[in-house]
Automatic annotation (TrEMBL):
One of its GO terms (cellular component) is cytosol. GO terms for biological process: L-arabinose catabolic process to D-xylulose 5-phosphate. This is L-fucose/L-arabinose isomerase family protein. The lineage of its organism: Bacteria, Bacillati, Bacillota, Clostridia, Eubacteriales. Residues 198-325 form the L-arabinose isomerase central domain. It comes from Congzhengia minquanensis. The keyword Heme does not apply. The keyword Oxidoreductase does not apply. Keywords: Arabinose catabolism, Carbohydrate metabolism, Isomerase, Manganese, Metal-binding. It comes from the Bacteria. GO terms for molecular function: L-arabinose isomerase activity; metal ion binding.
Length: 481
């Protein structure tokens, strides 16, 4: 019943390059090459991106004209189709005048020429690699190195198609960061120095705007919630969550009707809040006076947050703007993005529990997530419904965003494995995380990079993709191994 609110998309500009002299020398070559270009455009479009096709650029004059159009197109990424040999003068103006990551795509139509029938025409059809060294060399001389080069065959090449797809996914991240609105509401939990972040620095590094919001803004929406909205949300919650009897933890009990209704109403208020302030995501922490409506609302957002995470709206507690941005990045890669931290080691089986007591991305849950009523939230005020589940079994990726002594942001990336096994029935999310060479050695390396205690947790191994995103954004990146 949970559907994404925000589509994953991107604008990708693409142009082909060639040497105009060929067209009179080899009749029909232009038409052949533009047919191959159309097939490449179709492959990019099939990855869920909006394609802005600027056609053939085969002279410096056309390059200057194309550069002006591409610069004003709103594109997130630029593919240069190395259709055949081209002089670097047809690409240098575009690289110089457009402030976009550029990927050279050199995919030849044939995996190999038929040497018994080979001709100059056939060679030129498949000369995609020929000017790549010239282009990369000139890019370095301009001080604007190309971001990547994709080599391979245009047809039936799974590796090349995977690289093309990866860059389309990266473009979706760049598209979502540009102009995103990550709200901040409340304050940092007292004494958490690692949570503080400067909204201006976040805009400078990621292009996100940070609206500063009040609990009263959320309360205004809470008072507008209708009974029909609450009942519809209860219906969704009952369909998406299990509500079992309590186990060993005396802090937990079976979800009460009171907590179900309160969580549903708070979730409805969040839905309205996100819409009213046009938020891409939210990081918050608020305690409020004991017995106040503000406390009741601020401490019962976990269920609504978890649903919104699955709908593509990253929500995290403890006022953690940095991790909210990390969650957005993983969500737009379509790999989840749960709000997570480290819990106790299991030195007997060499794993560590990874999870949190707050919002999670239930789209990547292993099985149906669980709701329990907690009589207290450890370390924080409040009580009520809390979400418990495990991340899907298999490869996992962590992205932490921290800051250096100079204030600049830093990516800390790790990969591990989520394996089947019992987790504590505490009403909190936990997953058994296994890391190489041993979990203890990995965690020591991780903490020595100076991360925050939170990170975004996703499924699959995507560390190399995150490294590329860090490079494009100009952010120091460490891949812990």
């Amino acid at each position: 019943m949970i559907e994404r609110l925000t589509p994953r998309t991107a604008k990708i500009a693409i142009f082909a390059v060639a040497h105009a002299t060929y067209w009179d020398q080899f009749p029909g070559l232009y038409e052949k090459i533009m047919g191959y270009h159309a097939d490449l455009v179709a492959k990019v479009r099939a990855n869920g991106a909006e394609v802005l096709d600027f056609g053939m650029v085969d002279s410096s004059e056309k390059a200057f004209s194309a550069a002006e159009k591409i610069a004003g197109s709103g594109a997130d990424l630029l593919f240069c189709n190395m259709a055949t040999y081209a002089t670097s003068s047809v690409f240098a103006p575009i690289l110089k005048e457009t402030n976009l990551p550029m990927v050279l795509v050199a995919l030849q139509p044939r995996k190999a020429m038929d040497y018994t029938k080979a001709s100059t025409f056939m060679q030129l059809e498949n000369d995609n690699i020929c000017s790549v060294p010239e282009f990369t060399g000139v890019a370095n001389r301009l001080g604007k190195p190309v971001t990547d080069v994709i080599l391979g065959a245009l047809y039936d090449d799974k590796e090349a198609e995977a690289e093309l797809s990866e860059w389309c996914e990266i473009a979706k991240v760049l598209h979502s960061l540009k102009g995103a609105r990550i709200g901040l509401m409340g304050h940092v939990l007292e004494a958490m120095y690692d949570m503080h972040a400067d909204p201006t620095a976040a805009f400078s590094a990621f292009g996100v705007h940070v609206p500063l919001l009040e609990i009263d803004d959320l309360l205004t929406e809470y008072h507008k919630v209708t009974e029909a909205e609450i009942q519809e949300k209860i219906k969704l919650i009952k369909a998406e969550f299990d509500m079992p009897e309590p186990k060993s933890d005396p802090v937990t009990k079976k979800l009460t009707e009171e907590d179900l209704i309160q969580s549903a109403k708070s979730a409805c208020a969040l839905d309205r809040f996100i819409k009213t302030y046009n938020l891409t995501g939210l990081a918050y922490y608020y305690e409020g006076q004991e017995g106040s409506l503000a406390r009741s609302l601020a401490t019962t957002l976990i269920v609504g947050n978890s649903i919104l995470n699955a709908q593509g709206v990253p929500m995290c507690g403890e006022f953690d703007l940095k991790t909210c941005i990390a969650m957005l990045i993983l969500d737009r890669l379509n790999i989840g993005g749960s709000f997570a931290e480290f819990h106790p080691f299991d030195f007997n089986e060499d794993f560590i529990l990874v999870g949190h007591d707050g919002p999670h991305h239930i789209a990547i849950a292993e099985g149906k997530p669980i709701l329990r009523s907690l009589i207290k939230f450890h370390g924080k005020p409040g009580r009520g419904a809390s979400v418990e589940f495990k991340i899907k079994e298999g490869p996992i990726t962590m992205l932490g965003i921290t800051q250096t002594a100079g204030g600049s942001f830093k990516f800390v990336i790790g990969e591990g494995i989520s394996k089947k096994g019992a987790i504590p029935p505490t009403g909190n999310t936990n997953t058994r995380g296994f890391f190489a060479p041993t979990t203890k050695e990995f965690i020591k390396k991780w903490v020595m990079e100076g991360p925050t205690h939170h990170y975004a947790l996703g499924v699959g191994h995507h560390g190399k993709t995150l490294e590329k995103i860090g490079k494009i954004l100009g952010i120091e990146t460490v891949f812990v191994k």
